[in-house]
């Protein structure tokens, strides 16, 4: 058998990805008790660079938030965001009039397409205990033919997402198929919507001092395993520490031996789109000319404007998990 490892690399901020993925970030914030208004106590904000607080040496960050952590309204065009929220909550609002509060294992899939604004805020809902947040946001590219599709917002609720148990491993199938287990359908215009593209997003947890076999893919696609939490693992005799990514040969099963701590992984795989990529901040197109066009259209139209009262809009503190869709459909969990 050939060595299944193609490359090992450290997990920087953001994580290094391969086509069709553009970008992936991992947020782990040990937020304190809330102050009753869904933010931290004001004295805890002293000395922070509010509006641009990304200090990796701190236990938690405000990001672009001033009073509540998170990301006030900002635009996207030409790709999709897949947001996996393992711990804590996110309040979503967008220029389509859609909104939601999701968390504790839920996943939001948003196709930006021709252009959308949204905000992603992290309300501190608990005032009597800490509010930990663990979040992955993955950017999945759209092919040229899909860059200008209508924006789309979809929730994958935790209780509906299939989870496979194999021995000492659990695999949460966010996208794609895991052996005979099929994920919830992705957004309709996604590159992941065509099963021939073999797009998969799996969150894999394996117990300490055990073994796991990652099954091979069906074709020669890009495949990366992100070892984001744990101690060490071993693949084909090679020791790998946590906070590293492993690019893998997709045509081989991969035998993973877990060290002294439980191991946590995200797997991203898919057929590459193989088109030129032009990126500028929140816009991803095929050419620099299209980037300039996106910037000009945003200046002129604001991608539909902002229907909410504040750029860092959050929902009522007592509100549970819910999704309000652009057509007015309300789903409460």
Describe this protein's structure.
It is built from one helix and 26 strands. It has two domains: 130 residues, Sandwich (Jelly Rolls); 140 residues, Jelly Rolls (Sandwich). It has 333 residues and is mainly beta. The model has no long low-confidence stretch (mean pLDDT 97).
- Which strand order spans the largest sheet, edge to edge or round the barrel? 1-20-17-22-15-12-11
Mean of pLDDT? 97
SSE order: EEEEEEEEEEEEEEEEEEEEEEEEHEE
Please state the overall shape, judged from the principal axes of the Cα atoms.
globular
Instruction: State which percent range the strand residues make up.
Output: 35-45%
Let me know the largest β-sheet.
7 strands, antiparallel
Protein name: Pirin family protein
Family: Belongs to the pirin family.
Domain Pirin C-terminal: 202-304
Organism: Flagellimonas pelagia
Topology (elements, then pairings):
Elements: E1 5-10, E2 21-31, E3 70-76, E4 79-87, E5 89-94, E6 99-103, E7 107-111, E8 116-121, E9 131-141, E10 152-156, E11 163-166, E12 169-175, E13 177-178, E14 181-182, E15 200-206, E16 211-214, E17 222-229, E18 232-235, E19 238-241, E20 244-248, E21 254-258, E22 263-270, E23 278-280, E24 283-285, H1 288-301, E25 322-324, E26 330-332
Antiparallel strand pairs: 1-20, 2-9, 3-8, 4-7, 4-9, 5-6, 5-8, 6-25, 7-10, 11-12, 12-15, 13-14, 15-22, 16-21, 17-20, 17-22, 18-19, 18-21, 23-24, 25-26
Domain Pirin N-terminal: 62-140
Protein name: Pirin family protein
Domain Pirin C-terminal: 202-304
């Amino acid at each position: 058998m050939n060595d299944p490892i193609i490359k090992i690399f450290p997990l920087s901020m953001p994580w290094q990805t391969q086509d069709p993925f553009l970008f992936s970030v991992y947020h782990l914030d040990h937020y304190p008790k809330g102050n009753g208004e869904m933010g931290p106590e004001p004295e805890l904000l002293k000395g922070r660079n509010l509006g641009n607080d990304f200090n990796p040496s701190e236990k938690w960050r405000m990001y672009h938030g001033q009073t509540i952590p998170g990301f006030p309204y900002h635009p996207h065009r030409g790709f999709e965001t897949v947001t996996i929220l393992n711990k804590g909550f996110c309040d979503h609002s967008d220029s389509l009039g859609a909104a939601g509060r999701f968390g504790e294992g839920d996943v939001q899939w948003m196709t930006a397409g021709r252009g959308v604004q949204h905000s992603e805020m992290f309300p501190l809902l608990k005032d009597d205990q800490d509010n930990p947040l663990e979040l992955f946001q993955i950017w999945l590219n759209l092919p040229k033919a899909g860059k200008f599709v209508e924006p789309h917002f979809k929730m994958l609720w935790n209780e509906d997402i299939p989870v496979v148990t194999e021995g000492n491993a659990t695999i949460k199938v966010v996208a794609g198929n895991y052996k005979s287990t099929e994920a919830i359908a992705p957004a309709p215009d996604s590159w992941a919507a065509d099963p021939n593209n073999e797009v998969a997003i799996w969150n894999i947890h394996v117990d300490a001092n055990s073994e796991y076999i990652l099954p091979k893919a069906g074709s020669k696609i890009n495949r990366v395993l992100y070892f984001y939490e744990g101690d060490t693992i071993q693949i084909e005799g090679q020791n790998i520490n946590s906070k590293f990514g492993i690019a893998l040969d997709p045509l081989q099963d991969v035998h993973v031996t877990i060290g002294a701590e439980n191991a946590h992984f995200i797997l991203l795989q898919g057929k590459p789109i193989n088109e030129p990529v032009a990126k500028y901040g929140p816009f991803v197109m095929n050419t620099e000319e299209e980037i300039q066009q996106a910037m000009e259209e945003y200046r002129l139209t604001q991608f539909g404007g902002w229907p909410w009262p504040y750029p860092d809009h959050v929902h009522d503190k007592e509100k549970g998990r819910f999704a309000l869709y652009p057509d007015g459909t309300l789903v409460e969990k």
